[in-house]
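User: Before I run my own analysis I want an independent prediction to cross-check against. Here's the chain; please return only the structure tokens and, at the end, one sentence I can use as a sanity check.
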Amino acid sequence: MDLLENMTDNLSAILVIFGGTGDLTHRKLIPALYNLVIDKLLPKNFSIVAVGRRNKTEEEYKSDMYRSLQEHSRNKVDERHWRKLASMLHYYQFDFTDLKGYEGLKNFLDTLDKEANTGGNRVFYLAVAPEHFETIVHGLHISNMTKKHGSWSRLIIEKPFGKDLKTARKLNNKLLEVFDENSIYRIDHYLGKEMIQNIMVLRFCNSIFESIWNNKFIDNVQISLTEKLGVGNRSGYYEHSGAIRDMVQSHIIQILSLVAMEPPINLKTDSIRTEKQKVIEAIEDITPGFLKNNVVFGQYGKGYIDGIPVPGYREEPKVPADSNTETFVALKLHINNFRWAGTPFYIRTGKRMGSGSAEIVIQFKDLPNILYFKDKEIQDPNLLVLRIQPNIGVFFQFNTKDFTTYDGIVPTKMDTSHFSAKQGNTPEAYERLIYDILRGDATLFPRWDEVEAAWSFADRIIQYRENKISQFPNYDAGSMGPVAAFELLARDGRKWWNI
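Assistant: Structure tokens:
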């Protein structure tokens, strides 16, 4: 037995996936579990139970998952590793909205637990529509599946965690009736991405960066998460979500908190989460008067993506012809603490944009207009770019002499990033997150007070949005968003960086 296998010996558990026949399981979860098998990061005593309503035999289900792996796994499907995963994989059919069926599931898990020697440990993954969260948790509770002496149970909740602060609080109260806070893992796949995990390392392992990571040296921070894709088959969800709920309240706020947080007192989970929460609570008061000048909403019209014509949002399947749902948000905000006071943070996210990428741009302040800056203006400032996807890595821009001239100065680029065609909402992020859940490491999962603070912030924008009459569509598919989003930065003498 090698080192990795020794490390996973105490992770024995049954992973129960509600929504076992759904898109998330096919495209993300099963490929993630397969690659954890390859990397020897699953314990020897481990089973997976996929719960679904469809009438399938276990062999039919495994055949479906095999085809999904061939299409979505980052590693080529190898028969040896597939057989190992297949031996762990089980299918249990029942309608999880029928509370009478949970007793049968409990008996199935208890029997499997004895066969697989998993110690009574359970991980319940709710890969279902959010309206089913409370029903499933209640079913687990009344069948006594969550409490067993000498073992543990953990709950994984996919986003969205509520649709506003009120519904998020209601859902959280229901969950806390059954699970304690330390057993609830609110998953945000962005936090599993390699570059997001690297933010803290980059800051706190390099004195050259942390010593200047403040308002004395940084002019502004930009966080851009842009997509070329439209809503596709998610229009039913997106029409009730929009860009604010889908991206700003979750992914962007989490990234912002990691970029702006103070050094934690240690690397323990709660120490990191506490510093992240302080950032969210320090965001300046989001009032209607503030938002009038500092937020831009957009909705894409028809246009071209990579030379191919695409429809506008209102022309997408199942989207009302007069839909007022935003597919783009740009926002300027400040974090009112000693480190960041006066430094603007610009965020933007949108669908059907001219480029699809996720990156954080740290723009440093210009030097005084003396010496080299006295006689001619250097156009490009120092930039530190953290590339999340599809390029992954760090890009740094600084100025040096142009050796082809006598006195020219040019920006020079140091780029450690590499292209990863599979980045995006990919299994790689889920691999890390599932492994952390099995180990009981909640560092990459938002704590409830973080979620509560994020919803308190987002609710103000949502309320303002609902009271605002917008002239949609206001940007063409294939562009980089509404003109007003560029004017938002131009008023401050700045521009969006597309590195």
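Sanity check: Residues 155 and 179 are 8 Å apart (CA to CA).
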